[in-house]
Amino acid sequence: MKAVLKTKREPGFTFGEVERPKPGLRDVVIKVKAAAICGSDLNFYVYEKGFCDAFIKELPFIPGHECAGEVVEVGRAVTHVQVGDRVAFDSHIPCGHCAQCQRGMPHTCMNMGLFGHNMNGCFAEYAMAMETGVRKLPPGMTFEQGAMLEPLGVVVRPVFYSEVGMANIGVAGCGAIGQFAIALARAMGANKIYAMDINEKRLALAKEMGATTVIDSGAQPEFAEQIKRETGGLDAFIDASGNESAINEGLKALHLGGKFMMVGNPKADLTIKNARTVLTLSEVNLRGNWGRSMFWTWERAERFLLSGKIDLTKIITHRFPLERFDEAFKVALGGEGCKVVFTFGEGE
Fold first, then answer.
1. What whole-number distance in Å separates Cα of residue 335 and Cα of residue 69?
2. How many domains does the structure of the chain reveal?
3. Is the model's pLDDT at 174 over the cut of 80?
4. Is the pLDDT of residue 295 over 80?
């Protein structure tokens, strides 16, 4: 089969032929119909050494983890899907028996397999994952929508926990995850939504997705003062940037007792300025977020997409055939669009 490959521990990918995966007892093989580029795929592409060395076990390696497709083969012990089913993959493959899995938190599994990270992914004609991470697409859902369930699911819990109904919220980082957060908050009845980013195109898209106010945090890095003046303090702030300055401003923008949701991935250790005031004395509710709650968040993500309340035609800005992977990654790296999707020349 044709696949995008990391063949050397250096920047870039190649395009080549590899053997189609053969399922073990509990594995599911799909013919990929849609696959999207995530920020972690960019880390593999540019070869962020620490990140890549932590995940890539052996070469060649196939990246990609946001996908949907049609089941073409299953292992002998697979029970809940069959050949011909239309499915999507969760990138988290829990072991099912560690302490976290037993606590009902399989998305934080201590022995986590990560599809497209420490095992081969979906930037290929065929992909394979364990049955535990496979979910059938509901009737009426397209493969492109199915490929968006994984990234959309990342922000479902933070938005729900933020209790956004008639709330004033902020979102820092207007890549795909931030745009999904804005769209979900708008669909759930948020009052005011402030969106912060340094990219003008992404700020314009944030406005289309439902942000009431957009702020160029490059030109105005100290945005908390404006937000506090206009709202008296936000009820919740969702950081999808991982940027230290944005995180500090987001904490300052909250009212006392506000909620702060960490969704972005900081690339280095963070310093929280005046932590005693903005965290302890302000009684901020600070919560991290790791992937999706399987499969509670998937159900809600499916409902939002099928309701039409989230317009993917705005978020999916570029489509490429797999063989044009280099062009696709350059678009994604350059910030020209939002979500870049690989298509496979077939209908839904």
1. 27
2. 2
3. yes
4. no
